[in-house]
Design goal:
Chain A: It comes from Solanum commersonii. The complex is a heterodimer. By secondary structure, chain A is an alpha+beta fold. The chains are: A alpha+beta, B alpha+beta.
């Protein structure tokens, strides 16, 4: 790149040019001012020659043509050392002015400020030809004190105002001037010739300076001739006077310099002469040089050469000079020369390194001489930066800018900003450095109260730091921008930026407080409440949003909502109409509603849709949130069901988007919203529950949520479709639909809705506890509901009672009464498949509640969830939904109470009697119980205490205590009972009172429970009745038998054998005729084998453990398990059955028969008479179709021991 | 007659071959009143070496320029203002690291950037291109290097299981971005202990 074409090169060519000093009389100025121009302004447009094409010959003999040339015009009073303070003020002014403009303007033209500064600094430069500008305020002194050569080229111009003065007079004056000053240096300049004017004439003598202001105003008094003349005048001035003068001067000076300094001899002399001066006391400002001194001459020579573009000559002279100055320790002069050398190197495009070295040298030297060199250092630095920039060395340029920035704040701010731009332009762009330096400069701008500039730089930095994960940086930038905008009163932007830093959980507590405080302050200053999207305080956990609404499923309580849908579905499976419930009403809907709504959720007008949202406070300071509401849109666009879809939709969208709860809780008619206030502590998370209740039919869309922070700032947040993963208590449809749709509801006409409450619900109960709780159903609507059905789960714990149960007193109702009729229930009441239909005529409306009893029986310990679902149909057929279900859910905790176990063994000596041992352990942790009554179920059994004593060890069973009772159980089934068997009338002896001092007995059948259990224990804890049901006995054989006879006989055995007569009593306990065959066996081996086979066949008589029964330990006296000692076949059996080998007979149902038996014994001893078997078979096999009953079987004999003693 | 060079105590101390070990021996030798001034000098030297950095901000920056760990480990009382300034300086220094990382294979890049008195040294890990950055005002290069090496080891150890998991996740999920924030308090205590030891 040609250095002359770079920015710096052009600037050098523009700025380091000859200066013309203009002296004029006031009248000249006056006539110029007619055109609203000063004299200089009038001339300056013509001072810039881009193609002047003048041949120049400087020191060398080769002439060259100067293409580009420029003059700068200055008034004499302006030619002086520029006032630094003035420059500063000016800079300040410029910056402030710029700040008032569009802030981004400056950003795009960063060079403007700098160039202005450069201008003001650069003014020094040509004056520094005589680098000696101390303490001079006025040009005359500058000329007089010898730092400038007073013998300057002079040129006299007579300005002729064509309007006021006749031309003749002007020419006459000109002639006079020519005679005085010489013909060459006088000129007549005609202006304002377009009007008449008087004559004015002026002396102008040229000097060295100019301004670059462009005459932009209209030259109303200047004709085109005048303009031509002006142009010609200036061109003549430069080409015929100034340039030749400069050439001449260069040649002259060059000769002088060559004479004194060039050549070996001169150098030695010079060196020696300088050396001699070394001892002289050092002037802090360095030695002063007058214009006539050789150093000044060399400098002038160099500068002239530079201005006439003879850079080689300039460079050689500067080099020569710099060593001189260095030896003289004239540091300021030295630096100045170094600076010029650097620039010359640059414009020659030679040796970059040397150029940079010179600039570095100059810069450090300026800094070394202290504060007076500061501004020069700045100027030098700027040249240097421009040099680097011209060569694309932006990174180095940036570091130079950074070095230029000194103590002065505003100055540093500008420099740092420039540095940041350099980082931006460098390749690759160093964006982070860019941002950092912008922030640094912004801080400095702020310190100088240049808030707008500060904001501008920070905004630039923001483009780098936006979205950064470096949180301190992001917070710092946003916070300050926000704060400063707040100062300026641009609150919306301020708030926007402050919002970014609000959720600063990582900052310290004090910083958080500061952020929040400043933010609220800005909000207060605005004086109104703002609404902002994406307010980060508090943090809203959108995935946590849960929506609860009721369509055909309604919920009695919150607890019911959180139960899994599948549970409800399995519960309601049988209850809801056989044709899949959903398709049923959906079909119905599809007839009534446009297609597009088919996918929507259904909700009913007047019924609240609940939303649960998680609010989290990320800060360590508490915040208060108020007025949390939902934002909803309601449109009533479902009126035309059969309309063309597209049109219908459009209509719906345009005309019906009426009610948005945008700014107010407007349109209260279409829906109502709930409002919540939350106070969030440090880092707290709170679940907020909100509801919206649609009032009118149509579609309702939940758009988002709004809230107020600290009572002043409103925030809102929309549920974006991507973000929400809503958990609706909805079954199968939710998976394939986006949440966006899920928050859209189709509101249908208001329907009756049952409300259900459970009364008298205990929280904890003990195992076996029996409670009557009541379900209250209420329908606030006018429309009745009918066809109620109910199902409960688990049925073991919950049973549906009877209407009458409500009136009875509990537990008094259980007491045995004389008449039994009321306690017997009709079969029709029985629940089929667990579904309980309410009476046909049940209809609920108008808020009148009906109650229905439920029996709660704590069957097993643990935490039990109970479910109850009520199905009902609308009385009004026109409604969209034909039925709804009410779901009730509650939990109870069941604590352990009594643990009961039974041991039952047949009583050997009695037919149809058993011994029962009952062990009761109190398992509860603290509670004591009284055992009251033991009952057996049905009319087959009588139960009584074994010893009919009333003296019991303790009535009251403390925690952990155990008691045992011995009871006998007797089968009392008889033929007489047969006709009344179906009535299930219990025998009077089925109950045994175990509580001393109480004669009250409970009636087993008045209790609402089923008959599946056989033994029931009643006990009291604190005067409430509990019961324990135990199923213990079951026999698989229909016959009972016993061998009766003497146990001990004495015989003298004088006869070889002795016959003993026994009898066997066989009882048929079944309802059928049984044929029985008794098979006595003599062979012990046979007995043994038949015993095992019968055991294997499983048809043995005896007691079986039933898995249903709880906590029962039965030790059944099963004959099959008894090991019969095998006898050796050699030995004669100790006894033989003598009466008959086999008997066969039939037994009527429920009858007994005695058969005689006889054995013969041969010797004294003890004999086991169990080696017989009974074969039974039902004569009329299973006309009842009872599969579980066997029709025949073989029973082993019970052990019966007979002892024969030798009679003496 | 040849006699070996004799040293005065001062010369002895100033001998170039005089190692730190000798210094220590000197220090441990019973000090008589005569050379007490010398031993005092030694102690001062020692203190000069062990002086801890008054400002030191340590950060681990992941490949995506996301800071995954940060700690102020200097002895100077923590200032609110300093936190963001340190982040700014370290963040800006990433530009330099970016430039340098491709020109050198060295892991320890000492004093690559400076801001006023604060110097940035960086340790670039080889494989996953995680950068350990330290902003410090001391000139104890050896200590800093050791510090970096030990923290790097620690980082590898502590994130070994994490890395395994991450690799697994990378396999499973192509959108996974490695380099999550280090939240282990164990790591934090260790780093601070290392800082006390070396800086």
């Amino acid at each position: 790149m040609d250095p002359a074409n770079s920015t710096l090169g052009r600037m050098l060519l523009d700025e380091i040019t000859p200066v013309v000093m203009v002296l004029r009389t006031p009248l000249v100025e006056e006539s110029s001012q007619k055109n609203q121009l000063s004299f200089i302004q009038m001339l300056s447009p013509f001072c810039n020659f881009n193609n002047i094409d003048v041949p120049v010959r400087t020191a060398s003999d080769q002439p060259y043509r100067l293409k580009k040339f420029k003059l700068r015009l200055f008034y004499a009073s302006d030619i002086r050392q520029p006032n630094i303070e003035a420059a500063k003020e000016r800079l300040n002014q410029v910056i402030t002015d710029a700040g008032e403009k569009d802030l981004s303007n400056l950003c795009s033209e960063p060079l403007q400020i700098e160039s202005l500064l450069a201008v003001s600094s650069r003014d020094e430069d040509p004056i520094n030809k005589f680098v000696d500008l101390f303490n001079i305020n006025q040009l005359p002194s500058l000329l007089n004190d010898g730092s400038m050569d007073p013998k300057m080229l002079k040129h006299f111009v007579l300005v002729h105002d064509g309007v006021e003065v006749p031309l003749e007079r002007a020419t006459k004056t000109l002639a006079e001037m020519r005679s005085t000053f010489g013909a060459n240096c006088c000129h007549l300049l005609c202006i304002n010739s377009s009007k008449d004017g008087s004559e004015e004439h002026e002396n102008l003598w040229s000097a060295y300076k100019t301004d670059i202001s462009h005459g932009q105003q209209l030259r109303c008094f200047l004709s085109s001739d005048d303009l031509d003349e002006l142009k010609k005048f200036v061109q003549d001035l430069s080409s015929k006077h100034i340039i030749p003068h400069m050439e001449q001067k260069i040649r002259l000076l060059n000769q002088q310099v060559s004479a004194t300094r060039k050549g070996f001899r001169n150098q030695i002399k010079n060196l020696w002469w300088r050396k001699g001066k070394e001892d002289a006391p050092e002037n802090p400002a360095g030695p002063t040089y007058t214009f006539s001194s050789i150093e000044s001459q060399i400098r002038v020579l160099g500068d002239y050469a530079f201005m006439l573009h003879d850079y080689e000559l300039a460079l050689s002279n500067y080099r020569l000079l710099s060593t001189d100055y260095k030896l003289d320790k004239a540091w300021k002069h030295y630096a100045g020369v170094q600076e010029m050398m650097g620039l010359t190197y640059f414009i020659l495009d030679q040796s970059r390194k040397d150029g940079e070295y010179c600039m570095e040298n100059a810069f450090t030297t300026y800094l070394k001489i202290g504060s007076s060199g500061q501004r020069n250092a700045t100027r030098c630095g700027l040249w240097w930066v421009e040099m680097l920039k011209a060569r694309d060395q932006y990174k180095e340029a940036a570091s130079v800018y950074f070095r230029i920035s000194g103590e002065e704040l505003l100055h540093s701010a500008v420099m740092l900003e420039q540095a940041s731009y350099c980082y931006l332009f460098s390749t690759p762009p160093m964006l982070r450095k860019y941002g950092f330096h912008l922030v640094l400069s912004g801080d400095l701008y702020k310190k100088c109260d240049q808030i707008k500039h500060a904001i501008r730089t920070y905004k630039g930095a923001l483009s780098v730091f936006k979205g950064t994960t470096w949180r301190h940086i992001r917070d710092h930038v946003h916070f300050h921008i926000g704060k400063w905008y707040g100062f300026l009163g641009i609150f919306d932007v301020a708030i926007k930026n402050m919002l970014e830093v609000l959720a600063c959980g990582h900052q310290s507590k004090t910083t958080q407080e500061l952020f929040l405080k400043d933010f609220l302050q800005i909000i207060q200053q605005t004086g109104k409440t703002y609404e902002v999207p994406k307010l980060q305080l508090p943090v809203i956990n959108i995935p946590s949003v849960k929506v609860v609404y009721e369509d055909h499923r309604t919920y009695a309580s919150q607890a019911a909502i959180h139960v899994k849908e599948s549970l409800w579905r399995s519960l309601e499976e049988d209850m809801i109409p056989t044709m899949s419930s959903k398709s049923n009403w959906l079909e119905l809907q599809s007839k009534m509603l446009p297609k597009k709504f088919k996918e929507s959720n259904i909700c009913v007008a007047g019924e609240a849709i609940g939303i649960t949202i998680e609010f989290k406070n990320p800060l360590q300071i508490p915040i208060s949130i108020s007025g949390v509401t939902l934002i909803c849109e309601h449109s009533s666009a479902v009126s035309e069901p059969n309309a063309n879809n597209s049109i219908g939709e459009q209509n719906g969208d345009t005309s019906n988007k009426s009610a948005t709860s945008g700014n107010f809780a407007s349109d209260a008619s279409s829906f109502t919203l709930s409002e919540a206030d939350v106070a969030l502590g440090e880092g707290e998370t709170v679940l907020v529950q909100l509801t919206v209740t649609p009032r009118a039919e149509g579609t309702l869309k939940i758009v988002g949520i709004r809230w107020k922070l600290s009572g002043s700032l409103g925030g809102f947040c929309t549920f974006d479709s991507d973000l929400v993963r809503k958990k609706v208590m909805k079954g199968n449809r939710k998976s394939k639909r986006s949440t966006f749709d899920n928050l859209k509801f189709l509101v249908i006409k208001s329907l009756p809705k049952l409300e259900g409450f459970i009364h008298h619900l205990p929280e904890t109960v003990y195992v076996g506890d029996l409670r009557c709780i009541s379900l209250e159903l209420k329908n606030p609507s006018k429309i009745p509901v009918k066809k109620l059905k109910m199902k409960v789960n688990p049925p073991m714990f919950l049973q549906i009672g009877h209407k009458e149960d409500l009136e009875v007193q509990f537990p008094a109702c259980l007491e045995r009464k004389s008449s039994r009729q009321s306690s017997l229930r009709s079969k029709t009441d029985k629940v089929s498949d667990g579904i309980f239909p309410f009476p046909e005529d049940t209809s609920i409306a108008d808020g009148t509640p009906i109650s229905w009893p439920l029996w709660l029986r704590a069957a097993a310990p643990g935490k039990i969830s109970l479910y109850l679902s009520v199905y009902y149909e609308m009385g009004d057929i026109s409604s969209v939904m034909t039925y709804r279900t009410l779901r009730v859910h509650f939990n109870i905790e069941v604590l352990p109470s009594l643990d009961v176990s039974f041991q039952i063994s047949p009583r050997p000596s009695r037919l149809r009697e058993f011994l029962v041992r009952m062990d009761v352990v109190n398992r509860s942790s603290s509670k004591g119980f009284q055992v009251h009554q033991l009952s057996s179920v049905g009319n087959e059994w009588e139960i009584s205490l074994l010893e009919p004593t009333k003296v019991l060890p303790s009535d009251f069973l403390l925690a952990g205590q155990a008691i045992s009772r011995f009871l006998k159980l007797k089968n009392c089934r008889s033929v007489t009972d047969q006709d009344s068997a179906s009535s299930l009338c219990p025998s009077k002896k089925a109950d045994v009172n175990l509580l001393s001092g109480s004669e009250m007995l409970f009636d087993l059948y008045s209790s609402p429970l089923s008959m599946r259990t056989r033994l029931t224990l009643y006990w009291y804890p604190d005067h409430k009745v509990r019961r324990m049901n135990t199923q213990i006995v079951r026999t698989s054989s229909p016959i009972w038998w016993i061998i009766d006879g003497p146990r001990t006989v004495k015989h003298d055995f004088k006869e070889p054998f002795y016959a003993i007569t026994l009898k066997m009593i066989v009882h048929n306990s079944s309802d059928d005729v049984v044929s029985i065959r008794c098979n006595p066996s003599d062979s012990a081996v046979n007995i043994s084998s038949s015993g095992t086979t019968s055991a294997a066949s499983g048809n043995e008589v005896g007691w079986h453990d039933l898995s249903l029964s709880n906590d029962i330990k039965i030790t059944p006296d099963t004959p099959g398990t008894r090991v019969v000692k095998p006898m050796s076949s050699d030995t004669v059996p100790p006894f033989i059955w003598s009466a008959s080998s086999s008997t066969h007979y039939t037994l009527e149902p429920l009858s007994s028969r005695e058969t005689p038996m006889e054995i013969c014994v041969f010797s004294p001893g003890t004999f086991d008479l169990s080696n017989y078997s009974l074969h039974w078979s039902l004569s009329s096999p299973s006309d009842r179709g009872d599969e579980s009953r066997t029709s025949s079987g073989t029973c082993q004999g019970h052990p019966f021991y007979i002892t024969v003693l030798q009679q003496d | 007659m040849i006699t070996g060079p004799t040293f005065t105590t001062a010369e002895f101390l100033l001998r170039p071959s005089f190692t730190a070990l000798c210094l220590l021996c000197e220090l441990l030798r019973p000090v008589s009143s005569a050379n007490s001034s010398r031993s005092l000098l030694v102690i001062e030297l020692n203190l000069g070496i062990r002086k801890m950095a008054s400002t030191a901000c340590f950060m681990i920056v992941s490949r995506n320029d996301i800071p995954i760990y940060e700690a102020e480990v200097g002895t100077a009382p923590k200032k609110e203002e300093a936190a963001h300034q340190h982040q700014f300086i370290l963040h800006a220094a990433l530009d330099i690291v970016q430039d340098l990382a491709w020109t050198t294979s060295a892991m320890f890049l000492k004093s690559i950037d400076r801001f006023n008195d604060l110097v940035v040294s960086v340790y670039v890990t080889a494989g996953i291109h995680t950068r350990l950055m330290l902003l410090h005002d001391s000139r104890n290069d050896d200590g800093i290097k050791s510090f970096f090496q030990e923290v790097h080891e620690l980082y590898i150890k502590i994130s070994f299981t994490d890395l395994l998991l991450q690799n697994l996740q990378i396999l499973l999920n192509p959108l996974y971005l490695p380099g999550s924030r280090i939240t282990s308090s164990h790591f934090d205590t260790k780093v601070r202990a290392l800082a006390r030891k070396y800086l």
